[in-house]
Design a protein that fits this description.
single chain, about 350 residues, mainly beta, Beta-galactosidase, Chain A, domain 5, nine-stranded antiparallel β-sheet, 3 helices
């Protein structure tokens, strides 16, 4: 195991560093202290050739200017909150509106915009990057001073573990995720159509025109959302299912069984032989197939084509605070929030 630290750039004259955690199998995960962003994950393919299996912009200026959320820690609440408000004991809490009158990914100053403090730990079996930051009371409307800790760990079993922790001094909401995009081909210019995906889910959340859950959890049976036995992503993306056509791909929450003995998601690419399996203690995963072209504002960075990557965002169901039966995302004073998602990388036999 080894850890490398390099300067990545500056924000308001403050240095931003990139930490790269690498194991003996040449699996490496690079994370910057701005937004806790995973800038790249590199692993060998079936021919032992190294390739970048994530999709992201490559300069700090572009990341800040475009704010694409690629690889970022998203929170305190991932996804959308309808009407940018919620009710807490008969009191209406107003949040920042930043998308069609709703709150998207916690507003303009979420966790993805923070400069995080960093520490490292290392032994023969694993290495970790520990990031900490504080969300201030009232930031984007969310109550409470919230102490947040996120730990990235890479081990010799070819796993990346992301552990989220938080504490608050006021009752608030907390539902974080990481918005990393994967393309297992090792080339961001390739589409994800040839990837196979399997999702351990019996129900998905139907969405309205603003991508807000309607509150209905629909059975996946006999729909394009039935990925229990696996399917090509290309088949799913070009399907004539109305909810997919309107979004030009997937942008949907799937209810999963966090206690299942099987991974909640298995993603694979035959050409490269790479396989990704995800396990989590969360109740849902939002699957988004990069349904837009990501252009650089200055033209100095990558042009990311539509369907160049897939985000697999483990979390509680979006808009849970406003949807009956969607579970709880409350964080209470005196409570210690903890959640872990594990990404297991391997090569097909």
């Amino acid at each position: 195991m080894r850890i490398k630290k390099e300067r990545y750039g500056f924000v308001n004259h403050q240095a931003i560093f990139e930490y790269t955690l690498t194991n003996s199998n040449e699996l490496s995960v690079s994370v910057i202290t701005y937004g806790g962003i995973i800038t790249k994950i590199i692993m060998p393919d079936r021919y032992d050739d190294l390739g970048e299996i994530t999709v992201n912009m490559t300069t700090l200026d572009e990341i800040i200017q475009e704010r694409p959320f690629h690889g970022a820690i998203v929170g305190p609440v991932a996804g959308r909150i309808s009407g940018a408000r919620y009710i807490d004991e008969d009191k209406c809490v107003e949040l920042e509106k930043n998308e069609n009158g709703n709150t998207l990914h916690s507003g303009s100053t979420g966790l993805d915009t923070k400069i995080w403090e960093a520490e490292t730990e290392e032994n023969e079996k694993e290495s970790s990057l520990i990031l900490t930051t504080t969300l201030k009371d009232g930031e984007c409307g969310f109550p409470g001073d919230v102490q947040v800790k996120v730990t990235y760990t890479v081990n010799e079993e070819n796993e990346l573990k992301i552990k989220y922790e938080a504490e608050t001094n006021k009752r608030t909401l907390f539902n974080p995720t990481n918005h990393v995009y994967f393309n297992l081909s090792g080339n961001y210019e390739n589409s994800i159509y040839a990837h196979d995906i399997q999702v351990n889910s019996n129900h998905y959340a139907s969405l309205n025109e603003d991508n807000i859950p309607t509150g209905e959890l629909k059975a996946v049976t006999d729909t394009a959302f039935d990925l229990r036995e696996g399917n090509k992503l290309g088949n799913v993306i070009i399907n004539k299912e109305e909810e997919i056509v309107l979004r030009k791909g997937l942008d949907h929450p799937f209810l999963v069984n966090p206690h299942s003995q099987e991974p909640i998601v298995k993603l694979s690419n035959v050409a490269s032989g790479r396989v990704l399996e995800i396990e989590t203690d969360r109740d849902a995963i939002v699957i988004y197939t990069h349904n837009h072209i990501q252009k650089s504002a200055t033209g100095k960075d990558r042009l990311l084509w539509m369907h160049s990557g897939i985000a697999l965002e483990t979390q509680q169901l979006p808009d849970a605070v406003n949807q009956k039966g969607f579970g709880s995302i409350w964080l209470e004073p005196g409570e210690h929030f903890t959640s872990t998602t594990k990404y297991k990388f391997s090569i097909m036999e």
